[in-house]
Amino acid sequence: MKKQIIILIGLKGSGKTYVGSLLQEKLNIKFFRVENVWLSLKSERLTNEYILEGFGLVEREIDKLLLNKNRIIIESTGTTDYFSTFINKLETKYDLKIVKIQTSPELCLQRIKSRDSSNHVPISDDIVKKINQDALKINLKYDLIIDNEKSTDNKILEDIQKVLF
Fold this sequence. Notes:
CATH topology: Rossmann fold
Distance between the termini: 13 Å
CATH architecture: 3-Layer(aba) Sandwich
Number of helices: 7
Number of strands: 5
Helix content: 40-55%
Number of domains: 1
Shape: globular
């Protein structure tokens, strides 16, 4: 049986980190906060080199984590051109479950403006809007869609357990 990666996909501010942390706390599944890798690169621009380096680091960290675990959770907006290549590479090694975290762009922007920005990649509101516009266009084969405006924590946990396990 292949080891499993649950990928939370959604707009910036949709609640991917919240849901990942909830699943780690309640279901004891390691949540690998991918944004920490991007923060460690300390780049001011979203260049192709930066993106390739970041995805390479993320993939290596996933491989390390799954040496000792059967399942992990990661998060992404899925909006870079390299994302589909990244997913395809992971699919050759692991069982992927893709979960869409759905939230309105307006609420996402409100959340971003009110959160602690020290543990997020610093970007302007205009770039957030652009990323979120791109994220709205993503059409993947989702194993589950979570409405993070209306779902309770218990409903999220129940849906995840029904669909993914």
